[in-house]
Amino acid sequence: MKKILFTLFKIYSGHLFGQTYTITPQQIVVLPAIVNESSGIEVNPADTSKIWTHNDSGDSAYVYQVTTQGQLLRKIIIGTGKAVDIEDITRDDAGNYYIADVGNNNNNRTNLIIHKVANLDTVTTKAVNNDKIFFSYPDQTLFPPPAAMQNFDCEALFHYNKHLYLFSKNKGNSTFVRMYSVPDSAGTYVATLVDSVDIGTNIGSWITAADMSPDHSKIALLSDNSLHVFSNYTGVNFFGGIHTHYNFPNYSQKEALVFLNNDELYITDEYNPMLNNGGNLYKLNLASVLTANQWLSTTVVKLYPNPSNDLLYIDINHTLTKPLSVSIYNTLGALVISKRYTTTELNYITLNVTELTAGAYKLQLTYENISRVIGFVRK
């Protein structure tokens, strides 16, 4: 039996989420400065070494092709190049791309439009023609509505079964994200309000991007602070299956994501000069995250003694095959102890806490980018 310093638990948030975990996306590359406000991202599944991305309201109707090494390859103008606030991009299985000029921060737009263009990967010109999909929301009658009712800024969409599905930012008093759909062909439509889901409400939880896995088995909704993955649903009842919630430990203005395959995601964030962060491309492997989750869910872990006077021990009934990190934080959130253990060091881990002053602490164990936290007391 291996000794590891940690106690396992799962977080349940009532009706909001099935399970909540903490994950850390892997930074791949810094994006070119020309797309320092990357707000949407898409790939051709046949070649995921390149991405298509765009800026939001600070740019015209341009899309940029960038390699995963950070090299800018192309800049293409969509239609006349005019745009208000492009917030997301998606692709259908036939290779058509949809560029969504739907940003609506003030909830007062009456000119929402999605540009449909032929396969960007095969065009050779610097500009492409586009079909236009105009739409409005069926439940919006005031432009803008009162602040408490402002839930009409959809900055996330994906394509499925000849329809585009859009997801709102819950900026008003509502804690629900609304899901609308419009047909994927040119025309003027009143969107259909399909469903909604309660994910809580604050600026960091506003939904900024969405995508569906290539096999249609899961959808992902992104916010600055977290990722929501829905799976095991039937048809378009996306919110009726399993809802897994992942927290990001580090804040940045995350605005775009795309599935590379059924398990891996790319994520981008905008560069924030005030915080001096962002402007990057990240990769997240849900398969490894779920593997770690499965490992944790079948593992019995015991921390003792708690309270502790000098040494902390852990018993675990499972073999670890990858390194383990252990961190201890005080009540102010300051890191006071940090240890990393290789697989050869995991047989009998003992942590000396005599250097800590008496009081309460939080212990975090991280395994395969999955973190768990438990409180303990130093006597």
Give your account of this protein's structure:
This protein has 379 residues and is mostly beta strands. The protein has 2 domains: 31-285, Tachylectin-2, Chain A, CATH 2.115.10; 299-378, Immunoglobulin-like (Sandwich). Helices cover 3% and strands 46% of the residues. It contains 1 helix and 30 strands. Strands 1-20-19-18-17 form a 5-stranded mixed β-sheet, with no helix packed on it. It has a 5-stranded mixed β-sheet with strand order 3-4-5-6-10, with no helix packed on it. The longest helix is centred in the last third of the chain and has 12 residues, at 286-297. The chain is elongated. The model is unreliable at 1-17 (pLDDT under 50).
Could you name the key traits of this structure?
1 helix, 379 residues, Immunoglobulin-like, disordered N terminus, Tachylectin-2, Chain A, mainly beta, 2 domains, 46% strand, 5-stranded mixed beta sheet, 30 strands, single chain
Task: Give the strand tally.
Answer: 30
- Structural class by secondary-structure content: mainly beta
Shape: elongated
Helix content: under 10%
Biggest sheet details: 5 strands, mixed
Average pLDDT, all residues: 87
Helical region count? 1
Distance between the termini: 27 Å
CATH architecture of the largest domain: 5 Propeller
